[in-house]
Amino acid sequence: MTTPNFMLADWVAILAAFALFSTVGLLPGYALGWSLNLVRFRTRAWVFRLVLSVPMSIALGPVISYLIGRWLSMGAVLAVYGIGGLYALFLMVRAPRAPLRLPRIAVILVLIWITLAMLMLADLQIHRRVYFPIIAFDYAVRTAFTAAIDTWGIPAPNPFFFPGHFVGLRYHYFWLIQCALIERIGSPLVSARTALIAGTMWCGIGLMCLVALYLRLFSPQAQTDISRRATIGIALLAVTGLDIVPALWMLWLNHRGVVAGVSPSVEWWNNQVDGWLYTMLWEPHYLCSVIACLMGFLILWDAAEDGGRRWIAPGIAAGLAFATAAGSGIYVAMIFAIFLTLWFLITTGRKWYRETRLLALAGIVAMVTSLPFLKNLRGPGSGGPLLQLTIRSFDPVEFLHLNRPWMVVLANAMLLPANYFLELGFFFAVGLTVWKNFRAERRSSTRQELAAFTLAGASIVVCTFVKSTVTYTNDLGWRGFLLAQFILLMWAADLVADLLSGRRSLARADRTVLAALLAVGCAGVGYDLAILRFYPVLSDAGKVPRMFWLASDEKLGERTYANRQAYDWLKASSSVYTIVQQNPNPPFQDTFYGLYADRRTVAEDADCRTNVGGDPGECAAVVNTLMKLFPTDGESTPGSFQEVCRSLPLDVVAAKDTDAVWRERSSWVWNVKPIFANDFVRLFSCHE
Fold first, then answer.
1. What is the C-alpha separation between 105 and 663, in angstroms, rounded?
2. CA distance 96 to 110
3. Which DSSP symbol is given to 600?
4. Less Cβ around it within 10 Å: N or C end of the chain?
5. How far apart are CA 73 and CA 378, in angstroms?
6. Residue 384 pLDDT
7. Listed residue (206, 174, 180, 475) closest to 320, CA to CA
8. How far apart are CA 154 and CA 216, in angstroms?
9. Burial (Cβ within 10 Å: 0-12, 13-18, ≥19) of residue 30
């Protein structure tokens, strides 16, 4: 039998999806920018329009897709994008024939990012072994969401729970709508997973464009050497904090036998403040939210700079961008809403009434357009407080073995500077330098400085003293901090550019410290990319401790190959409406189903993922029935397969070598004829 080359197939599909993504990642922004003349689009140079079109598409497209898809259909969404795309191409063709002179270094940086993202996110194949990256831990969830949106439309269903009726998805999924559109256009070549990867690439490009735009339109040095400053700003996206120091420390402790684990990412050692490259790869939907917030504010900023004469179109567009932010990354949007409220009060107090009017209109539009989505975030299983007051935790405090809660709180508070210094590294030093220089000048802040300080301050304060509690991860503190990090990135680009050009000087000791922190931050990113990509390979080779959700043997690569083969066969042989069921209580996380199936399931795990949609009480009954198929002792009763198939809306059942029932030769796994089988997976039809 010919061995499928899954890695090559991924590369082809990802590149195809990337090309198709221009229909939602570039052309809509060009059409809307020209039609509404946002950020004075019509007066801008050709290259500026292209740079502006990407973050504008990312900021405005998702909410437009949601509203049209919700009230009409996904087909109507595609029709709108088709018309808008043709209009954008018409505008491009009839534009003055100025030569397209993109800075060479910018093109190189974009190509490096595209190549890096594809190598990091596509499957790695070695003969008949396939390895997904550690990032698949999250992509397995979002791939399933993307496939569900493509198949079932909007409002999106929870693909992990189907008790026989529709269960709405409680998740910020606006960015995934754009990925689902590309899956629909490019199918069958493009899958939900490859569309999601292409979307990640475009989000990264959108961030790069936004960096250049802010350095051109928002920075106090807007007219000074923009090409160099933009290049520096984009390059600094590849710098993280000092996370490699504790990561190497943990490696040494593991080698000495003091600890039994090795983190598969440098960002996981503490309450995260993630580097930009990590965020670009792991969290494209939160990055979409950041881009939408900042693009919306830039639209308002430019309209105010233009004298506020045109305020209706910018106000509506900014409001739509803020609605996209809420639907793509709710916690980022929360932080930005606090900033906008503060900025509204500041503009009112300083009598900048034209800007106040813009903010008011944008706020009203954002509330109206995001309300249908926000109303669906509540439901059975979503109870409990959304937020909780706290002091940002510093994980090394655990080693102090403090036995009183107030002692832990006090220790975390006292160690906050050390916490942020380790997490931010170079950017911490930049922020401190900018603040000290501002204080030393003893002057009032400019409008730009006031906005930057307000945004950074709101992000830092909220993310330090408030945490989200819906899941075990503090997404508010982890993702909301990105807004402060963006301001630090702007300051860093300006500072480095000034130092290189001689416009600013620092003491030799300060320059040495900055250079050292920069080098450590770059080394941390390099280490992180390597461990994220190759940890599963190293785990199979016995070079690193095995993770609880991967495997307990050296067959992860073979098992992944077999599972992908099985699900590829299923997708080619069944309808997109097929319902497939695997063990809801597997010994290891069933990453394979989420990554490769592109099909709905009755219960993905023992909780049916009701944290993102559904009633936990209804889930319990479903899981109890399914456990007749997958008993923990492997001893299924005669006729259990037919009984469960009759009781639940199942089409296909998947048994896997890690299931206890697989090892019991008298079970249904070996006594019912499969429709597909290999050494690790057997698929059974409930209708034969």
1. 57
2. 26
3. B
4. N
5. 23
6. 57
7. 174
8. 38
9. buried
3-class DSSP state of 667: coil
Encode burial over 72-102: b for 16+ CB neighbours within 10 A, e otherwise. eebeebbebbeebbebbeebbeeeeeeeeee
Exposure string for 355-372, b = 16+ CB within 10 A, e = fewer? bbbbbbbbbebbeebbeb
**Tokens representing residue 142 in the block:** 């979002």
With a cut of 90, say whether residue 589 has pLDDT above it: no
Crossing angle of the two packed helices 447-465 and 482-501, in degrees rounded to 10: 130
**Distant-in-sequence, close-in-space partners of 573: CB < 8 Å, separation ≥ 6:** 675, 676
CB 2 within 8 A of CB 32: no
Short-list 269, 288, 287, CA closest to 279: 287
Residue 475's SS3 state is helix
How many residues comprise the chain? Answer: 688
Residue 653 DSSP SS3:
strand
pLDDT tens-digit map of 505-543 = 888 888 999 999 999 999 999 999 999 999 999 999 888
Whether 223 shows a pLDDT value over 70: the answer reads: no
User: What's the chain's Rg over C-alpha atoms?
Assistant: 26
Per DSSP, the residues of 283-299 read -HHHHHHHHHHHHHHHH
Sequence-distant (6+) residues with CB within 8 A of 414 are none
From the number of C-beta atoms within 10 Å of its C-beta (0-12, 13-18, 19+), residue 560 rates as buried
| Chain centre to alpha carbon of residue 530 | 20
**107 burial via Cβ count (<10 Å: 0-12, 13-18, 19+):** exposed
**347, containing H or E segment:** helix 330-349
Is the model's pLDDT at 580 over the cut of 90? Answer: yes
Two tokens at 551? 């495997």
pLDDT of residue 383: 52
b or e along 258-292 (b: 16 or more beta carbons within 10 Å of the residue's beta carbon)?
A: eeeebbbbbbbbbbbbbbbbbbbbbbbbbbbbbbb
Q: Which residue has the tokens 């754009």?
A: 178
